[in-house]
From TrEMBL:
Gene3D superfamilies tied to this protein: 2.60.200.40, Probable inorganic polyphosphate/atp-NAD kinase, domain 1 (3.40.50.10330)
Native species: Streptomyces tubbatahanensis
EC primary class: transferase
Sequence ranges assigned to domain DAGKc in this UniProt record: 2-133
UniProt protein name: Diacylglycerol kinase
Cofactor dependency: Mg(2+)
Record-linked Pfam families: DAGK_cat, YegS_C
Length: 294
């Protein structure tokens, strides 16, 4: 008898209410109908959940399924990067920027669940920062401050949290002295933010690195020079379309290796805290396969 295909379904125990619980149920029902063996994986904290996920991958599983937002996808990437096990994503979070970048349905959990069994494997690059992997964008500067504040807000929900956090941090805006190394090019400048993108979106659909392509072997870097708060506020709506890159204070670059340094500045990636600067980021081509629409 041919063994049934297997998937480990990674869920966040702290989020198993609302859309997370409903979308997990949708995924499990689809897997049962398709004849797959599905095992729920969770943990008491992210480190425990990651260890349990790695144990399931070591025991043999055909797909790692993540039911959640970018934070849980980030956790799943730590397990599957370089393993050869493909990743499936059933979005159930606030931003879902990883799913957005790869065309995975964000508002149709049944369609996303079908990709577990019927999706096309797409080899996707990942960015590596020390021993951490990320799939979307690393934010440092003003945008990292916004992410930290948005993560701390209980209200409002959804993308509106980023809007509220943005206005709060605009009142505290200050120039940040950055030193950058982009492959063999070095830059020193006062900047508002520096974003390093493996994909183009962060902050619930802001197209901060519009030139980022997830399978081209390079990172897209967006630098916003220091500017008054009122000027930055006028530019922010353009981040959603990606047209901000035509502004004279915005510069874009491409590199395989990026080094960032600035005093008292920290970085977030996939909406998760990474570390204080200085840090380095490298593009690792084809580090993971993701199940996406054909």
């Amino acid at each position: 008898m041919t063994p049934r295909p297997r998937t480990a379904v990674l869920v966040n125990p702290a989020s198993l209410t609302g859309s997370s619980a409903k979308n997990a149920e949708v995924a499990l029902r689809h897997l049962a109908r398709a004849g797959w063996e599905a095992t729920l994986v969770s943990g008491s904290d992210p480190a425990d959940a990651l260890e349990r996920t790695r144990d399931h991958l070591a025991a043999g599983t055909d797909v790692l399924t993540v039911v959640g937002g970018d934070g849980l996808v980030h956790l799943g990437l730590q397990a599957v990067a370089g393993s050869g096990v493909p990743l499936a994503v059933v979005p159930a979070g606030t931003g879902n920027d990883f799913a957005r970048a790869l065309g995975i349905p964000r508002r149709d959990p049944a369609a996303a669940a079908r990709l577990i069994t019927e999706g096309t494997r797409r080899a996707v690059d990942l960015a590596r920062c020390g021993d951490r992997w990320f799939g979307t964008v690393l934010a440092s500067g003003f945008d990292a401050l916004v992410t930290r504040r948005a993560n701390a807000l209980r209200r409002p929900r959804g993308g509106a949290r980023y809007t509220v956090a943005t206005f709060v941090e605009l009142a505290r805006l200050r120039p940040l002295p950055f030193r950058l190394r982009l492959d063999d090019r070095e830059l020193t400048l006062d900047a508002t933010l520096v974003a390093v993108g493996n994909t183009c979106y962060y902050g619930s659909g802001m197209k901060v690195c519009p030139d980022a392509v997830p399978d081209d072997g390079e990172l897209a870097v967006t630098v916003v020079e220091s500017a008054p708060a009122v000027r930055l506020m006028a530019t922010l709506p353009r981040f959603y379309s990606g047209s901000h890159v035509s502004h004279p204070k915005v510069h874009t670059y491409r590199a395989r290796h990026v080094e960032l340094a600035a005093p008292d500045v920290f970085a977030y990636a996939d909406g998760e805290f990474i570390s204080d600067l200085p840090l380095t980021v490298d593009c690792v081509p084809g580090a993971v396969s993701v199940l996406v629409p054909e």
